[in-house]
Amino acid sequence: MSKLRGAMIGVGFFAVNQLNAWHDIEDVEIVAICDRNPERLNKMGDRFAIAARYQDAAEMLAREQLDFVDIATTVSSHRTLVELAADHKMPVICQKPFATSLHDARAVVATCNAAGVPLMVHENFRWQTPILAVKNMLASDRIGRPFWARFSFRTGYDVYAGQPYLAEGDRFIIEDTGIHLLDVARFLLGEVTTIATSVQRINNTIRGEDVATMLMSHAAGATSVVDCSFASRPEFDRFPQTLMEIEGEKGSLRLDRDFSLTVVDSEGTSRADVSPFLLPWAERPWHNIQESVLNIQKHWVQCLRLGTAPATSGHDNLKTIALVEAAYEGAKSGTTVRPGL
Ligand code: NAD
Ligand code: 89Y
Question: Which ranges carry the Gfo/Idh/MocA-like oxidoreductase N-terminal domain (predicted)?
């Protein structure tokens, strides 16, 4: 079987992880890249030995013979680019957040459905090794039915150095990082029925909110808190880790900053090391996220080969986008909101 021929649109700060991960997947060859910025285009083209380089995505899609396209631009271009891929009947991956509103997200999903092309949102946090370990622990039923949880991401890491656009938008932490934790909450505890949100801006040099606290009710009965901050000064800064605690009817679990998973159940207390693998191209502190990029991209290849829907399909991710929208709505109105769909 010949390798899948892929192309990337947007080869900036984060795409290097995606290109490294594609390079690790034997079944895939990235045959073309596109970026409006010629310096970035040439830098990445040289680094990954990709000869076909375009500044215009439409030209690339018209000229290249491809099996899929992977979009890693920032959100304002996502709708146009995914719809362009759909016009070419091209299976497409799009980085999170895949749209700036639920309205746009629905439109993009409808366009891909109508064109019959698979759409996967690159929502990679749920593919992190420690989070998959928590998922397996819940599935084993050792702690029983979860009734309470906290998902926490608190840091003082200078995220603006690598991603300066995060300081510029009206929306920041919920749309950029909280979105991952909301998706993880859905992944582990099921769909959300209500959300109440408080936001703060502590760093006055940025436009959006850099602290958010969300309280959610899940249809299956659990209550969860999602809290995230880029304004914290913790003793141990564990950027970009998600820490969690889950209490169930038969026990509890805790995912700690040293990647230990502690479980308390009827047998007592046990601890397991659920550290991510440090890939050869990975760099601390990003290695946990970098491994999840490889995991989600392997999943995409499997889905393309088998013709199955990705776990984070556009359709699935509508529910995560709906939570983001409901969080902003609730923060503004000071009310508890039912996420729309
Ligand atoms: P970036 O600005 O560094 O890179 C984006 C690149 O896209 C730029 O080089 C820009 O020139 C190019 N671009 C923009 N519009 C284009 C267009 N229409 N055609 C061709 N090229 C275009 O941004 P980034 O930090 O790499 O973020 C990209 C995306 O990745 C964002 O959506 C961000 O939220 C997401 N991201 C995800 C994770 C994760 O863990 N999943 C982590 C960081 C960033
Ligand atoms: O942009 C964010 C993301 O998606 O994952 C980590 C990040 O780079 C900063 O929180």
Answer: 5-121
